Amino acid sequence: MNISIIITQQEHYKYSQEICDTIELSALLRGTGIAKRTPEYIQKKMESKDAVIALDNGKFAGFCYIESWEHGKYVAHSGLIVHPDYRNLGLAKQIKSKVFEYSLEKYPDAKIFGITTGLAVMKINSDLGYKPVPFSELTTDPTFWSGCKTCANFEILQSKENKMCLCTGMLFDPKEKPKDPPKHPFNIRVLNRLKLIKQALFLKK
Known about the structure:
Elements: E1 3-7, H1 16-30, H2 39-47, E2 51-56, E3 59-69, E4 74-82, H3 91-106, E5 111-116, H4 119-128, E6 131-133, H5 142-146, H6 154-159, E7 168-172, H7 188-202
Parallel strand pairs: 4-5
Antiparallel strand pairs: 1-2, 2-3, 3-4, 5-7, 6-7
Helix pairs in contact: 1-2, 3-4
Organism: Flavobacterium xylosi
Domain N-acetyltransferase: 11-151
Protein name: GNAT family N-acetyltransferase
């Protein structure tokens, strides 16, 4: 395989529908909540060069895009996906590393954050220097949280006034140590137990 990870251009607009379908199918198979994307929104991110795409000789292999909030004070990476044909090859980490480095270049003063239920994504974030934080340390921009409306767990988020959900918040602050991000020990057992506790609390009938 000859996979390249590059900043999106006009020639990549044709992959928008496939990206959306792959993201939605992945969420259904995992049984997790997801904020749905439209091809139009994905293309908009491509047009503004706020996205990276992984291609294997023209075949779609993976994708991730950048969102900025509060006039660039915060940046988030969303829609991280790897096509089923390219999973278990470490591609997700490569894509995440690429979009992370690109974010530091394009938004050098922004705090980079994310919310996720995926332990694999948490591990990648931790390796890049993110640390788990309460939602109060993330953006307060209502537009960001309204993006969770299509997630199956949105009612939980609303009931907790955007302060807690099944997702775990993670944050990287470039001002802490920008040239050598601190590593925060990742304990998959602890985070998995936290995830199970949240599910027991929030999903109980």
